[in-house]
Design a protein that fits this description.
Strand content: 15-25%
Helix content: 40-55%
Largest sheet: 4 strands, parallel
Order of helices and strands: EHEHHEEEHEHEHEHHEHEH
Distance between the termini: 19 Å
Strand order of the largest sheet: 2-1-5-6
Structural class: alpha/beta
Length: 228
């Protein structure tokens, strides 16, 4: 067993409490040697939805969480990387990437890279409506950088996030699968939020398509980049 003090220390920064469990499950399955710790500010997602945009205050708050994570150290040693898990804060995370010395990973970059590499018609499912347009644009940007033309088919699983936060995880999964089933032209489906990862099995059964989850793709990429 790896000694505790030698385990890679990864900061997980969340704006939804529902993202925590799927993220830890992905680490336990893919990279159990890593030591992860959580920073959570649920008011960020609420304020982002209420304001409708990323204002200067939210940008500063996201940077403050990153600064705290970067300064964190303990028995596992200093923090080696930051992984954001909420998809509605792309420009703020990009600012953190410019201002932070550590590797900073956006929640969807690994999943989008996988999708672009494997398909030309990509389905995108979200439950947080404020993130839909930004994520679709981010996916197109990945394809443009890769020099590959793609079609993006994006949908909101309306009511799914509310069901999950009310404790009805089964209804959350069903609503996610119903939304994904409308993406008939998609060759592959990306579940665009960490909290959606739990619905992957039912989405696969309902659509008979390959499903990419953001935490799974992110942890695979983190492990490859940090330890080879």
């Amino acid at each position: 067993m790896m000694k505790f003090e030698s385990r890679p220390r990864i900061a997980l920064i969340h704006a939804l409490s529902d993202s925590i469990a799927p993220c830890h499950a992905a680490f336990a399955r893919i990279w159990p040697e890593a030591y992860c710790f959580d920073l959570l500010d649920t008011s960020l997602s609420q304020d982002r939805a209420a304001i409708g945009q990323l204002d200067a205050s939210i940008m500063r708050r996201v940077q403050a969480l990153a600064d705290y994570a970067e300064a964190s150290s303990g028995e596992a040693g200093a923090t080696r990387a930051l992984l954001f898990t909420c998809s509605a804060f792309g420009p703020a995370i990009e600012s953190v990437q410019r201002l932070t010395r550590l590797p900073v990973f956006k929640p969807n970059e690994a999943a989008f890279a996988d999708a672009v590499a494997s398909a030309s018609s990509i389905g995108l499912v979200v439950t947080f409506e404020a993130s839909l347009d930004a994520l679709a644009e981010e996916l197109r940007n990945h394809a443009e950088i890769a020099g590959k033309p793609i079609a993006v088919h994006a949908v909101v699983a309306t009511g799914a996030l509310a069901a999950l936060q009310a404790g009805d995880s089964e209804r959350h999964d069903i609503l996610a699968a119903e939304a994904a089933a409308t993406l008939h032209a998609a060759e592959v489906i990306v579940l665009g939020q960490f909290s959606l990862a739990r619905a992957a099995p039912i989405v696969e059964r309902r659509t008979a398509k390959r499903v990419i989850t953001t935490p799974g793709a992110a942890v695979h990429t983190l492990r490859r980049r940090l330890v080879g």
